[in-house]
Amino acid sequence: MSIIIKSKDEKILFSIICKNSENFLRIEKELYEQYPEYKNENNCFIHKGNKIDKSKTLDENKIKNNSIITLIHS
User: pTM of the prediction?
Assistant: First the structure.
């Protein structure tokens, strides 16, 4: 499956291919490899108005193919 992560400030548009059984933490790690400047910030990921639990799988977070996830950083 493919998901897209975009930042609220529109500086990030990141597409990644993954499995629905993967933990979101792995996807977050891949994002930080491409955008290391966001690694040490307090980031929150939102999907359809719900905060993503990073320790859960994509399925458990109800993330489907072609889902768009919003990164909110401070």
Answer: 0.90
Distance CA 14, CA 4 (A): 6
- CA triple 2-58-7, angle to 5 deg: 65
Strands (E), 1-74: 2-7, 13-17, 43-47, 50-51, 68-73
Count of domains observed in the chain: 1
Banded pLDDT at 41 (limits 50, 70, 90): confident
The CATH number that applies at residue 49 is 3.10.20.90
